[in-house]
Amino acid sequence: MKLDLDEIQREHALWIKKNFPSRPDKSFHPLLGVVEEVGELSHAVLKRDQGIRLNENHGENIKDAVGDIVIYLLDFCNTEKSGLLVVLIKLGVKLKNVIGKNIGRISNNVSRSTFILCCCLFWVYTFVLYF
User: Fold this and answer.
1) What one-character-per-residue DSSP string does 68-129 give?
2) Per the confidence metrics, is the pTM higher than 0.85?
């Protein structure tokens, strides 16, 4: 099955407008969702690595959190008038240059929202490579 990330993003934007018609079109709403889901992902990874709360399915919780992060990132990119695929491609091109450089210097050259998004995408990218 081939997935078209741009089409998924368009469909997601329509779903948001239909289900949340009065929600302000501000990027901090989905950005807070990303942060919340990263917290859930961190929680699941930590509990799995600690070997505790074995009644929870940590593997499924991890997959669920990663999926939710992607959905919130789609929403964030829609509010920023950018395609997630475009951001990922640009990030992939710049990734080699970002690793090992001073993060403070990078953050002065881009908007705060873009910097936070890139950090989240880098974290998710690193997580996907690790697992």
Assistant:
1) HHHHHHHHHHHHTT--HHHHHHHHHHHHHHHTTS-HHHHHHHS-HHHHHHHHHHHHHHHHHH
2) no
